[in-house]
Amino acid sequence: MELISIGIDFILHVDKYLEAFVRSYGLWVYALLFLIIFVETGLVVMPFLPGDSLLFVVGTMCGVGLMSYPLAVGLLLAAAVLGNQSNYSLGRYFGPRVFQWEDSKFFNKKAFNNAHAFYERYGGITIVMARFMPFVRTFAPFVAGVAQMTRRKFTLYDVTGGALWVVGVITAGYFFGNIPFVKTHLDKIIWAMILVPGALSILGAWRAGRSAEQAPPKA
After folding, report:
1. In this structure, is residue 152 part of a structural domain?
2. 174/21 Cα distance (integer angstroms)
3. Are residues 177 and 67 in contact, defined by beta-carbon separation less than 8 angstroms?
4. What's the rounded Cα separation, in Å, for the pair 219 and 1?
5. Are 161 and 88 in contact (CB under 8 A)?
6. Sign of the torsion formed by the C-alpha atoms of 177, 171, 36 and 99
7. Beta carbons of 7 and 47 less than 8 angstroms apart
8. Beta partners for 107?
């Protein structure tokens, strides 16, 4: 329970943790951020890491000169793209076997099924859309691998979505993160960044699943 409490506190106050780390360890913060983004997007068992809020806070730090905007964008875009490529490769390797896996603390079968239903409805564009959706973001490249999407097609969606996500959210933090109202209500904004996209992704997956159930069987 203590670890869960610490994790929630880190997610909600990532700005304070990150600022303290920058002041204490300097350039090592870039290595830590690269690892977090890579793990969140690259390992199907780590969907709970704070990707959106972390990028927003990075932009905020860049806005006040504590971090380099070009370096942060470049490294974290590389982490996001390489993470998805790793996740996609895992999906291609394990293939249809994942449908037989049981839910466990290392694999969330329900989240996988939601992402799969979303992918079945929206196709490859899911890889782009999922960048802005917690949980679906982690499972979408894995699902694309399971579905045997070609590497070339996946890479196109991967780079496009990664660029929109990383550059877009960091830039938003850069320009808006240090506005007094935003700084005062950052914890609420972080909750909104987690809950609103999460609710939309669940709704989209539910609707996709309903459509699949109601579709007539193929001849």
Report:
1. yes
2. 19
3. no
4. 51
5. no
6. positive
7. no
8. 104
Whether 73 is covered by a domain: the verdict is: yes
Total domains in the fold of the chain? 1
**Maximum C-alpha span of the chain:** 64
In a domain, 189, yes or no: yes
Is the predicted pLDDT of residue 21 greater than 60, yes or no? yes
User: What's the CA gap between 60 and 183, in Å, rounded?
Assistant: 9
Whether residue 17 lies inside any domain: the answer is: yes
Instruction: Specify the pTM.
Output: 0.76
d(CA 59, CA 6): 23
pLDDT in tens, 163-212: 999 999 999 999 988 888 877 776 677 667 666 655 655 565 556 556 65
With residues binned 3-state (H G I as helix, E B as strand, rest as coil), the percentages for the chain, rounded to 5, are: 80, 0, 20
Domain span including residue 199: 2-214
Grouping H, G, I as helix, E, B as strand and the rest as coil, residue 104 is strand
Provide the 8-state DSSP code for 139: H
Count of other CB atoms within 10 angstroms of residue 38: 21
